[in-house]
Write a structure and sequence with these properties.
five-stranded mixed β-sheet, mainly beta, Immunoglobulin-like, about 375 residues
Length: about 375
């Protein structure tokens, strides 16, 4: 149903009302009230407090003997964010961040999420977990109006990294996704990760990189438009979206979100698990100066990881994982290796690694000096 608040939107928003009204179905709400309730009373409950990406909440790498019900709470927030200097997006977010926070559970656990749609919001929202089974990934059971909340529980039956996103139905689905409403859940095997030989693998920390393509309209002068609210932005944004050419391709919500003062930090010898999601477009991560020691390219831990990859592929609508042990200090650039998107549109992160340089791995044999071009270097010519 169209909310009262949406019905009172301004003139620009009114142009979007017919589309909003059609979309407010979550592709038909399912009635599961006749199904027998699951008796999980014997299971232990734990609460996890979500944290802002690229960090990930506290979790065990190996699960206890018995499955648990893992409780999360998440708030949907519509708000304006600055994607780049002078470029503002009327964003839709899970927990106020783009991407939404990463959740971690173990295979066999139950995920129990209470989802809140803030009263200040204009639109209906829901959540579709690619890791869940049934009911459009939970989308048809979680559609809520502003000022409403709902609780969904599902069993995490498949280990891996998976995307979640908003999917309220029809043309609302791509709009909500490219406005920031996506995130990631990692379902670890109960015994933890294993390598290509089946031996246990541990990581020192997780960095969660959520990649987004944004479609911010421009005016007749070529300047980015700015809108009063998310509904007003819809008609112009839809036109840009349908052209399939993003104005920005960024990590974690904005240009420079993970560079400079916001760079990631690690220590020499640390093993970092990079989890990378893209809910809409294909991408190909690359760590300049490093590698993927072990890569679950499609993010599924039942599959044997690939080894020693220079660049790996993340299909649109999926999340992948790559483990790397940093052997040298320095600043590493983690990029989408479509270098146009990395350098010109924003898809770059930096990892600053502290430690002692190892000349056996790389050494500058001679610092740059001038040479006599008339005599030297001739053998380098074709």
């Amino acid at each position: 149903m169209l909310t009262r608040r949406a019905a009172m939107m301004g003139a620009a928003g009114i142009a979007a009302l017919p589309v909003l009204a059609k979309a407010a179905k979550a592709e038909e709400i399912m009635d599961t009230s006749m199904a027998a309730p699951a008796d999980l009373s014997s299971l232990k409950r734990i609460k996890r407090k979500l944290v802002r990406p690229p960090m990930v909440h506290e979790h065990e790498q190996e699960a206890p003997a018995e499955p648990r019900i893992v409780e999360f709470e998440m708030q949907i927030v519509e708000k304006e964010i600055e994607v780049d200097d002078g470029a503002y997006l009327q964003a839709m977010t899970f927990n106020g961040s783009v991407p939404g926070p990463m959740m971690v559970v173990h295979e066999g656990d139950y995920v129990e999420l209470t989802l809140y749609n803030s009263p200040e919001n204009l639109l209906q929202h829901n959540i579709d977990f690619h890791s869940a089974t049934g009911a459009l990934g939970g989308g048809s059971l979680t559609l809520i109006n502003p000022g409403e909340k709902t609780t969904l529980r599902f069993k995490a039956t498949r280990p891996g990294t998976f995307v979640y996103h908003c999917a309220p139905g029809g043309p609302m689905i791509p709009w909500h996704v490219v406005s920031g409403m996506s995130g990631c859940i990692m379902v670890l095997p109960r015994g933890g990760l294993t390598d290509h030989k089946g031996d246990p693998v541990r990581y020192d920390r997780v960095f969660y990189i959520g990649e987004n393509d944004f479609y911010i309209p421009k005016d007749e002068n070529g300047d980015y438009k700015r809108f009063e609210d998310v509904a007003e932005s819809y008609p112009d944004t839809l036109e840009v979206m349908n052209g399939l050419i993003p104005s920005h391709v960024v990590f974690n919500g904005k240009v420079g979100s993970l560079t400079g003062d916001n760079a990631l930090h690690a220590a020499q010898g640390e093993k970092i698990l990079f989890v990378h999601s893209q809910a809409n477009r294909d991408t190909r991560p690359h760590l300049i100066g490093g590698h993927g020691d072990l890569v679950w390219e499609r993010g599924k831990f039942n599959n044997t990881p690939q080894r020693d990859l220079e660049t790996w592929f993340i299909a649109g609508g999926s999340a992948g994982a790559a483990l790397y042990e940093f052997l040298q200090p320095g600043v590493y650039a983690y990029v989408n290796h479509n270098l146009i998107e990395a350098v010109n549109l924003g898809a770059t992160a930096h990892v600053v690694v502290e430690g002692d340089w190892n000349n056996d791995l790389m050494e500058q044999v001679q610092a740059p000096v001038e040479y006599n071009a008339a005599y030297e270097g001739k053998t380098a010519l074709p």
